[in-house]
Amino acid sequence: MTPGPAGPTVGDLRTLVVRRAGLRRKVALLAADEGLSRALEQNGCTVLVDPDSLDAVSTFHPEVVVAFDGFAAEGVEGFRKLASAAPGAELVFSFGNASSASVLIRALLGVSPSPAASERDVRAWLREAGFVVTSRDVVVTPHVGSGLSADTEAALRQLFEQLNPDAAADRLLLVARRGAEASAPERTAGLTSVILSGGDDAGALEGTIRSVAGQLQRPLELLVISTLSEQRLDELARAAKGRAGLTLVLAGGGPVDSLARTNFGLSRARGQYVCCLEAGELLDRSHLGALVERLGTSTAAWALSSPPVDVGRRFELERWLEAGAVLRGRYLIDRDRVGTFPLQFAEGLALGEAMFFCRLAAVFPPAWGAEPCTLDSPRTVASSRVELLEAMKGRPLRTLSTLEAQLTPAPPVDVSAVLQERIAGKSEAAGRLFGQALALVERVRDAAQKARAAAKDELER
Hints:
The protein is of the alpha/beta class. It has 18 helices and 14 strands.
């Protein structure tokens, strides 16, 4: 039985398949690949190569079945038949990634893609057929240029990978076995999930829990992840229990790192909308409702609330970074609209919040309007533009911007401010002296202007 083309069996693919198949096992190889067959036999395996039917597979009683792209042509039915023919076998399945940057670029150029499937579909088929995925590998394949300008192709790849990191993988390899797995939380349309991360400061946690419980936005899910015990969290959340339209989820004994706790909560949140807070932050009662409303009246994927400092009348990323206005509680994300964009913070990194903010802004223009600040936070976060650029040199971001933004003239440069910043970068004391000199010059200039105005008034009399 030849279910379809095996796809490019480059060295790395064979190595992964042999490794996952294991030593001295009975392997049914559903492809006519002599090189792979020899590699498996060298590993001590007994190999049934390219069987002509599933009956032959059943008679062979394999411990491992190796299959490739063509096997997915029937969708879930193919996996169901395999589960019936070899119920005790482990499945090693490699397939072309339909969401890879290579496939997307070829499709944009009008080139028919080679056989491929989306990982989401494959996992769904496996699950319906009674399989549980136990491991996942990214298969390295040689790069084949599309014919586009190399710079343009690189920019497109970066943009696709920002939206979906798996776009970097041309092929994937999944290992699955029969069994049952716990289902992931179902996303609930219209639900707002608030992820509250907290350490061992009980007072800060309780204050933020009360603040969230008092929000006008409903329905609401509050997930509290803290280093405190669940019993202590249960005591702190007493005031929020039983509130209409509020679901409370408590997870004690969480990680020490704040962003690790936030990531943990994001993986368990059920809401269409998500907002992430740190213990000690307080919200105006309309904070979440106003952000949800802003999303509802726009096509944006996330909505921003105003910081307590001036950041201009339109969204400019540099000004928000300079103001340190990148706190994760300041915005609300619509998970439906961000698609496969990974909602995950860089754990253990001082620039983690600012980096996430930049990643989000690079792909999705936010909905924002200058209004009173509705988040009170005692925190400050690292948001140095220079340090961020340095940290992201290895994987630079590509941005989506409007023609209007590109054609708008840049504001005039304040030469004195730039010079003072550069001097201060080399010597803090010199920077202070330069600032004092600037202030003196400004006072002299102001006095001269006042003197001229007074003289003019005197002459006019």
